[in-house]
Design brief:
Blueprint: H1 2-5, H2 7-20, H3 24-49, H4 65-81, H5 97-106, H6 109-121, H7 124-149, H8 152-180
Helix pairs in contact: 2-3, 2-7, 2-8, 3-5, 3-6, 3-7, 4-5, 4-8
């Protein structure tokens, strides 16, 4: 169940790790952000399964606005950086902990949609088991994303096109969430 609902996260993680380019603090922020975002998805799913409604069903598709906004910001930053001298030490690499967490959470509507009904019929011990497996799955996903970003062909492509790929993927994810959820009557 984890793998099926998180295929799209693999692409995002690879892009984020490519942007981190082996810088340990940035890599740490990607991993921590992924865990934070995914933990929020699991928490909302568990609460949803227990009957607590955090968001009305009609509001969930509008979470797609978050990655669209982040994609526009990333595109704006990439465009703006063409006209400014590079500062490698302090540059915004698009891999802030909260940035990754928000993208992960916003992209988790499908996860929540799958996990809530599963958790609703599972006992407490089963839910704990699912959560443990999911947290191990996040570690595996992070390792795989890091590995893929480090492959020479992928790393070269990401270093050349990553500043374009990240905004496009973020906006695409956001639009997919908006369209699939019929937000704004789409």
């Amino acid at each position: 169940m984890f793998a099926v609902t998180n295929v799209d996260d693999m692409v995002m993680l690879t892009v984020f790790f490519g942007r981190a380019a082996g810088r340990r603090p940035a890599v740490t922020r990607v991993v921590a952000g992924q865990y934070l975002g995914f933990s929020a998805i699991v928490a909302v799913s568990v609460l949803g399964a227990l009957g607590a409604t955090l968001l009305p069903d009609d509001a969930v598709p509008y979470l797609g606005l978050l990655p669209v906004a982040l994609g526009i910001r990333a595109g704006w930053m990439a465009w703006r950086s063409r006209h400014e001298p590079a500062h490698d030490v302090d540059r915004d690499d698009g891999v802030g902990l909260l940035h990754v967490a928000v993208v992960t959470f916003a992209n988790g509507g499908d996860n929540i949609g799958v996990y809530v009904p599963v958790f609703a019929v599972a006992g407490i011990s089963s839910i704990v088991g699912y959560v443990a497996v999911f947290l191990v799955g996040v570690a595996i996903w992070c390792a795989a994303g890091y590995y893929l970003a480090g492959r020479p062909a992928i790393a070269t492509a990401l270093s050349r096109w990553g500043h374009i790929v990240l905004p496009v993927i973020l906006i695409g994810i956001g639009l997919r969430i908006l369209v699939q959820g019929n937000a704004f009557g789409l």
